[in-house]
Fold each of these.
Amino acid sequence: MKNIIFIAPPASGKGTISKTLAEEYGYKHLSTGECLRKRVENNDKEIKYLIENGKLVSDELISTIIGEEISILKGQPFILDGVPRTLIQAKMLDTMFEKNMVTDVIVIKLNINKETAIKRILGRIVCSSCGKSYNMFNEKLKPKNENICDLCNNLLSKRSDDTREKIETRFSEYEKNILPIVEYYKSKNMIIEFNAEGEIEDALNKVKELIND
Ligand code: AMP
């Protein structure tokens, strides 16, 4: 099973796809956003400020978080969701892969436009306990019971950075940083991209084809 790096704007579906692949194929899902939100729950005010303003946290912190996670995987396939977000992070990952003898990595870039991202984000509600994401504007992605997680019965809520204003900043941050990362992975012949505007199942099936190739 190939290790996966997802490069995608907010609300592209990468979180949902990652969770499904983790359940179905035993991938370890490493989401830097989720790791950071846990730190915020533990009262890290600086990270809270950056996340709430759609800004990136430091490359050093991401290196510490991911470095620790990758070193304990011991061969379990993984999905990186939300990293790299800078060229420095991409190069840092290469060093980690080398150190931990990780091979067979595919970079999958999911493309959606800003309007689709905004629409999805405004309808998004998330389980603060297990992280499962739902969408109030999509019949197929609504929870069975209003505001209750189908999986763990905990309450659903909106992420504090899921507002129209903040998604604009997050999307611009993404677009500003993404080009050099994409060029970098192209030069290493590691990246495949496709349009993820449609149903989430279509994107999921496409990803399954790529990892089983
Ligand atoms: P996400 O859940 O991936 O949308 O991430 C939520 C927020 O966490 C982002 O808007 C950033 O503020 C921060 N973040 C997540 N991953 C990274 C990363 N690799 N580098 C810097 N900041 C990050």
Amino acid sequence: MVESPLVKTLLTTSAPEAAEFLRRGELVAFPTETVYGLGANAFDAAAVERIFVAKSRPADNPLIVHVASIGDVARLTREITPLANRLIGAFFPGPLTIVLPRSADVPDIVTGGLETVAVRMPRHPVALELLGAAGFPLCAPSANRSGRPSPTTWSAVIDDLGGRIACVLQGKATEIGLESTVVDARGDEAVILREGGLPAEEIAKVARVRFPAASEEAPASPGTRYRHYAPSAQVRRVVHPEEVRASRDAAFIGFHHPKGAADFARCRVVADAAEMARELFAFFRDCDASAVGTIYVELPAEEGIGRAIRDRLERAERR
Ligand code: TXA
Ligand code: MG
């Protein structure tokens, strides 16, 4: 794969200034309510190509297109199904991505050759301001090097992509901390391809929800094939924190104080699953920076945002 040329990365809080880079076909990282994204003009294939180079991302892993209006959804897709209309009405803007048949306007590189396109309208005011200033939809995967945990702060973006992208539009730490929920909305059931910031229980209030069978998941959402969301340290999922053995080489994050908490290299006790979601990826990065060997994570209950956390942990532990 081609290496990124070294560039100077500008830090700014000005959306109009960041939008100038996008107009020139350059990459801009920006905050959303889920995680930071790495944006490029979705209609500029050469700009989109740069995303794959900067992240070292496999070319067959398609990108989510971020929009500021329903008019943009219509331009990117061939059909907005009744189900998609219901989901848009209930959850746009927000942490939901819907997959629909793509229109001819969408460059092949965006969809990895698929006949579908993934679309999301973020609700973060800075993301919406950037989309407004640019005037075109933005392709944006999470702004990390491929395989690393998604960035929840602008400094995590710099750690991974500093010197490889033109600009970082700075915002606060992200509110949710996990990526959006991805739903195939082509049929009459919402098929959940990736659990995320919008809990399946919420979607079930407006639509029939289904999880794909293992056999259909891989072709439906190519990104699920890759190792993801993972720190360098070995993640170990824990059901009973009292069974974890503290050591200077290990870290713990969970809902209860483990025995010998002070003997861990890092120990973080959170109040609930929402706080765990918000803190998890930054905790992973912090552990990697201090060369922790094993990270123990107490599993949240399998409900609400807890389901998405469990999904990310399962992927991180598998290696
Ligand atoms: O919260 C988020 O979704 C963040 C922010 C920046 O919006 N973005 C994000 O993008 O997580 P990324 O590229 O890291 O993950 C996108 C996921 C991948 O698993 C990809 O395979 C899937 O969405 N995807 C994209 N287009 C698809 C399509 N046409 N059909 C099925 N899955 C698709
Ligand atoms: Mg990602």
Amino acid sequence: MLSPSEQTAIAPSLVTTKRITLSVESPDPAIIAEAAEVLRRGGLVAFPTETVYGLGADALNADAVKKVFVAKGRPADNPLIVHLAGFEKLEEYVDEIPPLAVTLARAFWPGPLTLVMKRSILVSDVISAGLDTVAVRVPNHSVALALLREFGEGIVAPSANLSGRPSPTTAQHVESDLGGRIEMILDVGSTAIGVESTVLDVTQDPPAILRLGGLTKEEIEEVAGPVVIASQNDLLRRSPGTRYRHYAPKARVFLIKEEDVDSYRLTLRDLRQQHLRVGCIVHSALLANVESGDLIRVLPSSPKLMAKHLFSTIRELDEHAEVLVIEEVEELGLGRAIMDRLKKAAN
Ligand code: TXA
Ligand code: MG
């Protein structure tokens, strides 16, 4: 248990959160300059990337980085991703750049691929949570890139949610979780991909996927040859943060396969008999036909569109339902990242 003085020490300080709307096509340079100034003063700015919204802080200011952990309620042993404006900045933050990292960066940056490599002395222990590596990526978003260029240095950015909540895909999600705890939110509406970046450890051969995400295993393998998906044991050693509960709605979550229509019906009947409010997220025409009601959401069956809408749908139904019944997807391509999030939500 923390003593009262320790609790005050880790309580986020209350600030006024300024939410500013800007255009993806041509982000207003004056707003970008204002956001960069907040970062220079050691403040926190949430900004959109192509995956989810990130909570940004100056990577070279350890006090600012600590504020990120406090604002999110994030355990200190869960390391952060450093975002860069381009490949050219990489050698400042990374000590050894394996040839394969160069190939992958050329193929997929800017984009939803995070590479784990040996860290340079610029990267503090706070960022890497004491590991000898650092995770880096170049996001593919006009606002994120404009901010990174204007700021000039690396920006650490975990997903801009309270620790344990689904990642934010709109500025509204960020405000609900972090309003009053961060200085600024740059609002462009919904993010394009909807699940976080794929985290790939390239310090080993073959490289290991530490987190499935927006870039598929198949896409990586076309460029890099075979990669492995890290086992649970591996993860505990190399990516300590993954042991924490992620993507957790308040509601209990049940997963149902498309072919299990009978068990779907029984589960629903059983839950309703217990007078529980049940929300359903389905994507096959089959399941959509089985039930109707105001807590039913039918997602598009293309994995791309499903990923885009997944977290916002879970957040929305979680406001009204005590139990969520969610239809599984095939674990292929982007479906692997979707199932990874669903299994964690159901855990
Ligand atoms: O798409 C994304 O990656 C978003 C946007 C904002 O860029 N960011 C994001 O950050 O999802 P976060 O903090 O929510 O997730 C970072 C993941 C965690 O699973 C963490 O354990 C892993 O990256 N990670 C960070 N540094 C690492 C390192 N040095 N070694 C292994 N894993 C690392
Ligand atoms: Mg996160």
